[in-house]
Amino acid sequence: MTELLPHTVYHIELCSGEQRRWRYLGAGAGGAAWWRDEETGLEFNEGGLLYAWHVVAAEDAAPPGDR
After folding, report:
1. What's the whole-model pTM score?
2. Most exposed: 8, 25, 57, 64, by fewest CB within 10 Å?
């Protein structure tokens, strides 16, 4: 994965297999990455997450397997 771009929506996969759409808001004080869940509108930083997750692809990028 390349560097995350602020204001870009990313497809995220949670450890449960659930897929989410999160907008990367950029790094805040102390370097913590901030995100907004596009469905709920909630904003959070990575330090507050209690589960494993990973970035699948940027919204405008083709999902893996479609390339």
Report:
1. 0.81
2. 64
